[in-house]
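ok so for the tutorial part 2 we go from a plain amino acid sequence to predicted structure tokens. step 1 is just haveing the sequence, like this:
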Amino acid sequence: MDIKTFWKETFAGFILKNFLIALGIIVVVAWAALIAVDFYTHHGEAEVIPDLRGSYVEEAEILLAKKGLYPMVIDSVYVRGKKLGTIIDQIPPANSTVKRNRPIYLIINSRSVRQVPLPEINDVSYRQADAMLQSMGLSVSNVEYAPSEFKDLVIDIKYHGRSVTPGTRLPEGSTVVLVVGSGLGNSQTIAPSLKGMGIEEATQTAQSSTLIIGSVEYDVTPSGNEDDYFIYRQRPAAGTSLTAGSRIDVYLTKDKARLKEVFEEDKKKEETDEQFF
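step 2 — the prediction. this is what the tokens look like for a chain of 277 residues:
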């Protein structure tokens, strides 16, 4: 039996012929796939990644476009001492190679300074207060001394010349002025009326009379709305003669009716005292 008859008339020839055809198709498809993969992945082509750290995303986009790459921001953190909005890290790192049309992942510095809450440092020593502030990313620019019954303890914190209360959020890296007690003075002063004032105004008013604000109590615990509260009662009362550096405790509310109620109580008390004398 010749080869021609084998291929055309025998079952074994039929099977072998179809097997060889299938094998040829597989080889052709595989070869074509390899060529397509090389073309798609730019086989043998690579670009050196520039160092993008310290530049802005817009600048990085221009640099990467020249190499057929593009930036992708994946995270934002705050690093003190770095320019806001600039790139602080990149993946892959600078000088490594990558194929074209690939993203370069970026981590940028926050575009705004982080705000940190002012810690509770009233009635603590200057050294302890300084350490607490530094741990929060704040620092002391100056120390002022004022009469106080508690010597060497912090009695007030000032930021840009204004008294600030614990919990106030300040930009990280800010500096504050600490007012520290120097002991009770020898002079006498009259307690001013603080009723109706907010805590910031009351603090400044007390200091102008060489007095300080002592305990601060709210009838309802505030939730970030301390500016809505005003003083409705104080101890010692307005008009009391005090030694310079003494404290005035204040009580705050948002209820105007409560202030009116206390005012009427004080008025009745004054009338009673006048009748008694």
